[in-house]
Amino acid sequence: MEISPVRILIVDDFEPFRRFIRSTLRQKPEWQIVGEASDGQEAVRKVEELQPDVTVLDIGLPTLNGIKAARLIRMLRSECKILFLSQETSADIVQEAFSLGAMAYVVKAYAGSELLTAMEAVCGGGRFMSRGLSSP
To answer: How many domains are there within the chain?
Structure first.
């Protein structure tokens, strides 16, 4: 019996960081990157079009920030899991991210060591939060 791949959308406005995310997630053959977006509005459109299982979403995005984009994504496709990957470490922002239904929050500074673990948690139905953040 073949397991269907986990479909992932990567959203970050900085192309070199999207490239880093892509190369990190490609380590797992069961994860399929179905698309990328560089701003919040494009992210919402791509979620509707591509129907990903997981959206890796930055908060500091042009046109529509990641929090607002996540709100719209949750309305359009409530089953799409959201993993925030951001430089933002404010307890209020982290709290808001989880209250929107995010499954994970990874601080970009720790992405090299935490992104795979966070994605595995999300794919398994669990939650993940970067070290050093206050629990929501």
So the answer is: 1
